[in-house]
Amino acid sequence: MSLPVFQRSLAAPVRAGLWLLVLVLAAAGAFTAGACGSGSSLSTPSSPVPTATPPPGGAATITIAAGVASPKQVEINVGQRVAFVNNDTVAHEIASNPHPIHTDCPPINEVGGLAPATARLTGAFTIARTCGYHDHGLPDNTSLQGTIIIH
Questions:
Q1: How far apart (Å, rounded) are the C-alpha atoms in residues 127 and 132?
Q2: C-alpha neighbours within 13 Å on the C-beta side of residue 42
Q3: Gap between the Cα atoms of 135 and 91, Å rounded
Q4: Which terminus of the chain is more exposed, N or C, with fewer CB under 10 A?
Q5: Which numeric CATH code is attached to 58-150?
């Protein structure tokens, strides 16, 4: 069966037009999907890093910033206290080792929770010894662990 002349002359351009339409729609769909993804979001201003100053009375200071406690080790004398400063963007809870009972050095437990941009002192250390501390909420994170040596 043969197509009439006028139908044969239109068949090739119609097929080419349909392919072009499919190609344009596919490209438009890909562009729209890419524009709606997370890769093309407006930039949001970054939050300033909070800062706090150590309270008076600390013989040494341990600062938490960017998820790291520093220095890892401080040395003080019997009767002195240590200041913990949270300059991180998240809260931390300082506790004595071992986790979860926190019984080795009770003066460390007096620090407790530290909201961003806050600082607190430990209790006075009354016995010469070495005490370990950690973040109670992240007890296995070695970046938030350290040692206080009391002479």
A1: 14
A2: 2
A3: 10
A4: N
A5: 2.60.40.420
